[in-house]
Specification:
Number of helices: 8
Helix content: 40-55%
Mean pLDDT: 96
Radius of gyration: 18 Å
Bound molecules: S-adenosylmethionine
Distance between the termini: 26 Å
CATH architecture: 3-Layer(aba) Sandwich
Largest sheet: 7 strands, mixed
Shape: globular
CATH topology: Rossmann fold
Strand content: 15-25%
Low-confidence stretches: none
CATH superfamily: Vaccinia Virus protein VP39
Order of helices and strands: HEHEHEEHEHHEHHE
Amino acid sequence: MMEKLGQELQKIKIGRVVDVATRRGDFAANLAKGLGDFQEIIAIDIDEKALAKGREALGADNRIKFECRNAYETGYPEGSFDMVALGNSLHHFEDVAALFQEMKRLLAPGGTLLISEMTADGQEGASLTHALIHRWESDVDRAKGVYHRHTYSSREILDMVEAAGFKVTKSFFDWDKEPKLVKGVEKRLAELEEKLAELKELPDYQELAESVARIKANEAAHGAAFAAALVVFAEK
Ligand SMILES: C[S@@+](CC[C@H](N)C(=O)[O-])C[C@H]1O[C@@H](n2cnc3c(N)ncnc32)[C@H](O)[C@@H]1O
């Protein structure tokens, strides 16, 4: 759990929450654990396989439901949720303006938008290892033709939220120290060379190999931790 985010969530007692682009529900789990009180969390994604893993992991809590929905067009009625959340997913969306419009439509009057997004700035030491791994993985995805851009800067994220017509009420950098997430970073680190070996045919292979060397050097010097995220609370 992110420490400052946890402190903020504790103060919030809320009804219905939607966690957009939830994958296996990691951010939704943080919300469930952190919120002072809530009625229901609907965790949505377009990837049915990831949702199935989320149901397996969090299914015991009957206040959390996983639904297969497209974030651009969820199909829920306007104003359905008191909180609309998005964790580490902005940089996976090609049309962020359309994503924000749908999130705004879903939010009830007086409701809270919550974004937590790994940033391009603010990464150093052990956190930089994760940020570099993420950067490398997004380079690999793009080299294979999958949409996955580098992360945004904190300024770009705040500008996007404001451009969509939201008013930012609070924002801060935070670090998720959840051991499961740190283990995940270590696993990705251990797999880098194996993955690299499968990319020999790509025109960008040399650059990708150099990046792996840079990541390993950073890990040797500073270790590995989950990267810094910008947390933004906003309202319509
Ligand atoms: C980095 S992952 C999400 C991480 C997740 N929030 C967490 O806390 O671990 C990005 C997710 O965005 C989802 N996604 C991408 N485009 C989507 C769309 N149009 N609608 C819903 N989900 C989408 C992907 O399927 C993927 O699971």
